[in-house]
Each structure stands twice: as C-alpha cells, then as structure tokens.
Design a protein that fits this description.
Layout: H1 2-10, H2 15-36, H3 41-56, H4 58-79, H5 98-104
Helix pairs in contact: 1-2
Length: 105
C-alpha cells in the first residue's frame, strides 16, 4: 500500500486521493505494529485480550449499526420532503435539534 502511495504521488495523481490512500496505509501500519507487539511477553497478553474483546463484540456492533441505520432512514426520508432553500424549513426544532440541522442540511 505504501508503494502505491509513493507511485501515485510521483505520477502526479490528485493530492487529496493520495492523502486518502496514505491515511489508510498509515492506519494499516499501526495495526501491524500492534500485531508485532505480541512477540514481547509483557504486551502479548494485552494484545490477546484486545483481539478477544473485539471478536466477541462483533455481534453487538452489527446490531448497533443496524439500530443507527434504522433511525437514520426515516430522518433521511423526512429530509427529502422539505425545501432545501427555505431558511425557515428545518427538519428539527431550533431548541433541541439545532445541531442536527447542520448535519442534515
């Protein structure tokens, strides 16, 4: 992945695309560093614990993602029904949902 970033940078590719690939490459390198920490005795048990916790919580994370999507879908449907150029037409009330208006708009 790092070689691909270097080649695309020297070939004159779009800078924002190169930075996106570079950020993915850096993240993967950090994950690999945690993988290599299993070699040392003091950190091996912690890395094993983290990997077991993540593997056991996959079902919960899938259910959480489904619940978030379940509530986001009606909001998106409601958002399609309003006039985007009207300042007074807000999806949420100004008192409680004011921060949400900035996200949805």
């Amino acid at each position: 992945m790092n070689v691909g970033v270097i080649i695309s940078y020297t070939a004159g590719a779009n800078v924002s695309m190169v930075r996106a690939f570079a950020s993915i490459a850096v993240f993967i390198m950090w994950l690999k560093m945690f993988y290599w920490l299993r070699i040392f005795e003091p950190t091996a048990s912690f890395i094993r614990m983290i990997s077991e916790i993540l593997s056991d919580s996959i079902t919960f994370m899938v259910m959480l993602a489904l619940c978030i999507i379940m509530f986001a879908n009606p909001v998106e449907v409601l958002n399609e029904n309003r006039d985007r150029y009207d300042e007074d037409d807000s999806l949420f009330s100004n008192s409680f949902g004011y921060p949400l208006n900035g996200i949805v708009n």
